[in-house]
Design brief:
Low-confidence stretches: none
Mean pLDDT: 90
CATH superfamily of one domain: DNA gyrase/topoisomerase IV, subunit A, C-terminal
Distance between the termini: 76 Å
Number of helices: 18
Largest sheet: 4 strands, mixed
CATH class of one domain: Mainly Beta
CATH architecture of one domain: 6 Propeller
Structural class: alpha+beta
Number of strands: 35
CATH topology of one domain: Neuraminidase
Strand content: 15-25%
Radius of gyration: 39 Å
Shape: elongated
Strand order of the largest sheet: 14-9-8-17
């Protein structure tokens, strides 16, 4: 509606406006910030940075200029999003440990693999590399479309001509709204081989292309340990991951000693953080085979690992470090890119390579047509020059005597306007016989070149042959380069971790584990008699669990949210002090209580049940958790809590339950299902309240409780089928409704 004021009021739903604005934001993030273009492999900020450096004539063979000036030009002309983001992009494109084929040459401090920041932009200088120049090749030959800059004061390219396969060669990482991209870098020599194969055989499969592309080739090297089947599946679907390890060697020392030297670390792992993490593990005594770690790096990576003794197997030591540190990482593959229509899609390896070839084909067509148009225009002018030379005296007379010589020349010699302008602009010193011969030579050369271009435009096979030759030139220039060309990431078979026992690497020592009422835990050395009596606890706290075991044992916590948590015996804090809270060792919720704590027994089974009276039997081997988040086994609705977790001793064949209503039910254990996870089945039916306690027993032994018992004959009134209501407990049964 319209009011009487100057402003117009538009009546719209808030949800509609919010949806429209958020969609605009999402599209802007996807198209203009986070996802690279499949054709040149660049995001807008990269493209604008390289194009601005070209406008500043910062060629690879020229002098660099201050990075601050470059950033200012980019921000002022093309990218009004802040200088910090632009400079961060510039810095990354110079780092040879971050980019496989750097697009920018940097002079000054541009950071290092330790994670140190680059110097301020006013201190560093930059210029393009030959790789960036290859991306810009023929950009002035109408090979790509341009659009207005944000202020309409100039134009910028939609995409670069990209003679270099930058997307796969340098990779890309980005997070958009509801989607992300993660593409590892590859070896350009291998990429060129696959591109040639795809030109020769359009129907080539991803498996055939993998005969040329072994896998990613990271700037920092390392060793990729992934099966061929896994790599193939990742490339076929465009999604997956690659397992990458540090490269190491065994260095012999006198007297039979040795040390391990790490020479390459996984991609995007900061060396300083890696060493700090391993040092922390050493201090926490979680690396029993490692004695010390030293950083002896200079320009190259050299991290020295000192084993506990010369009898320690180097391979087993490294396996323990791969498992517990960033010496082994996984790099994700998600080839989510923008196609030539600026639509995001996940492509496989073949589709990405074909998109690059299609772009190069379009560039070749546009460049050839542009050059042909230029030749035709030049030949037309040269024809006008030749007419002038053949009629030189008459032309000079017309120019000297006529008031409008241009129109007279056009009418007299049937010239085009552009030819007449060229004749009138000709210098007197060019009016010589030698110049005429040079013009005829230039004309013949242009006609020959034009005929070749016409033939190229009319012959698709010839165009693909030309593209193939261009790819060979890229391979020769970059793939055969002594520094950039050789593959850096080695390929190895996936290790057979099943053959290595990590428990064997832990020194077996007896311990006594104490867990208090408030959840503070510690491990005393040895099997200590009367440990609970001798030990002190925090004020208001007291002993709850005391378990004897070994450092090689696993210990299980069961919590009231139905989760099981696993902690190795070597991971508990020492016996000095009050120990550490369990919640620092596992990710247990603040409103969650520990119900049971016991030593792991692979052959044992347990009865688990919740307050709503549902439960089941679970093998202990099925509750082992691999992470700090634990393993959810007993699932329950809101406001219901787990209350029972008891190990079933061998020979037990009967279950006894009691509800809040003091009714007891006894039924065969065989009526309970054995499950790995779930809600289970109803143990006892309750009209009011829920389950109070449950236990297993041998039927022949009868039922016992605190200061009371009944024989198997006495149990008959309480025996029934599972999920029955049961019968009131006998006189004298404890008021706390506990069966134990």
């Amino acid at each position: 509606m319209k009011n009487n004021s100057v402003l117009d009021v538009i009546d719209r739903s808030f949800n509609d406006v919010l949806s429209e604005k958020y969609l605009a934001y999402a599209l802007s993030t996807i198209m203009a910030r986070s996802l690279p273009d499949v054709r040149d492999g660049l995001k807008p900020v990269h493209r604008r940075l390289i194009y601005a450096m070209r406008q500043m004539n910062l060629r690879s063979d020229g002098m660099p200029k201050k990075s601050a000036r470059i950033v200012g030009d980019v921000m002022g002309k093309f990218h009004p999003h802040g200088d910090a983001a632009i400079y961060e992009t510039l810095v990354r494109l110079t780092q040879d440990f971050a980019v496989r084929y750097p697009l920018i040459y940097g002079q000054g401090n541009f950071g290092n693999i330790d994670g140190d920041n680059a110097a301020a932009m006013r201190y560093t200088e930059s210029k393009m590399t030959t790789v960036a120049e290859a991306l810009l090749e023929d950009i002035d030959s109408d090979t790509v479309d341009f659009h207005d800059t944000y202020d309409g004061d100039g134009t910028e390219p939609d995409v670069l001509p990209a003679a270099f396969p930058n997307l796969l060669a340098n990779g890309a990482i980005g997070i958009a709204v509801g989607m992300a991209t993660s593409i590892p870098p590859h070896n350009v020599g291998e990429l060129c081989g696959a591109l040639e194969k795809l030109i020769d055989k359009k129907s080539a499969t991803v498996a055939e292309l993998m005969e040329f592309i072994s896998g990613p080739d990271f700037p920092t090297g390392g060793v990729m340990v992934e099966t061929l089947e896994s790599i193939l599946n990742s490339y076929e679907t465009g999604r997956g991951s690659f397992r990458l390890r540090a490269k190491w060697m065994e260095e012999k020392l006198p007297q039979g000693q040795y040390q391990i030297v790490i020479t390459e670390i996984p991609y995007q792992v900061q060396k300083s953080n890696l060493i700090e993490r391993i040092a922390d593990l050493l201090q926490e005594k979680k690396l029993s085979l490692l004695d010390d770690i030293r950083d002896e790096s200079a320009e190259d990576v050299r991290v020295v690992l000192v084993p506990k003794s010369r009898t320690v197997d180097a391979a087993i030591l490294m396996e323990s470090l791969f498992k517990s540190s960033d010496l082994e990482t996984r790099f994700p593959l998600n080839m989510n890119v923008l196609d030539k229509h600026h639509r995001p899609s996940v492509m496989n390896l073949k589709q990405v390579l074909q998109a690059f070839l299609d772009h190069r084909h379009e560039v070749l067509l546009r460049r050839s047509q542009f050059r042909l148009n230029k030749i035709e225009a030049r030949v037309e002018i040269l024809d006008g020059y030749l007419i002038a030379y053949l009629n030189l005296d008459k032309v000079i007379h017309i120019i000297r005597t006529e008031d409008e010589p241009k129109q007279v020349l056009i009418s007299t010699f049937a010239l085009a306007e552009i030819q007449a302008d060229a004749i009138l602009n000709m210098r007197l010193r060019n009016l010589r016989k030698l110049e005429e011969m040079e013009i005829r030579g230039e004309r013949n050369g242009l006609l020959k070149e034009g005929a070749g271009l016409t033939e190229l435009l009319n012959d698709e096979k010839k165009r693909w042959k030309t593209i193939k030759e261009q790819i060979r030139q890229i391979k020769k220039q970059f793939g055969d380069d002594k520094v950039l060309g050789p593959r850096r990431t080695l390929l190895a078979e996936a290790p057979q971790l099943g053959d290595i026992s990590f428990e064997a690497m832990i020194e077996r020592e007896p311990i006594t584990v104490l867990c208090s009422e408030q959840g503070w835990i510690r491990a005393l050395k040895g099997h200590v008699k009367d440990a609970a009596i001798e030990q002190k606890y925090k004020e208001g706290d007291k002993e709850r669990f005391v378990i004897e075991g070994y450092t090689t044992d696993k210990f299980i916590f069961f919590a009231s949210d139905g989760r099981f948590f696993t902690v190795g015996g070597d991971k508990f804090p020492g016996g000095r002090g009050f120990g550490d809270p369990v919640r620092l060792m596992v990710s247990m919720g603040d409103n969650t209580d520990i119900l049971t704590f016991f030593k792991y027994d692979e052959k044992a089974k347990m009865l688990v049940a919740a307050s709503d009276g549902r439960g089941f039997v679970v093998p202990m081997k099925d509750v082992l958790a691999q992470t700090k988040n634990g393993k959810a086994v007993l699932t329950m609705p809101d406001k219901i809590k787990a209350i029972i977790c008891s190990i079933i001793p061998e020979g037990h064949d009967t279950v006894a339950t009691i509800g809040d209503n003091r009714k007891i039910l006894i039924f065969p254990l065989s009526q309970l299902p054995e499950m790995g996870r779930g809600r289970g089945v109803t143990l006892q039916k309750f009209k009011d309240g829920g389950l109070s306690d449950a236990k297993t027993l041998r039927y022949i032994d009868g039922l016992t409780w605190y200061r009371g018992s009944m024989s198997k004959g006495d149990m008959l009134p309480w025996i029934g089928a599972r999920a029955s209501s049961g019968r009131l407990a006998p006189q004298g049964f404890p008021r706390n409704n506990k069966l134990s």
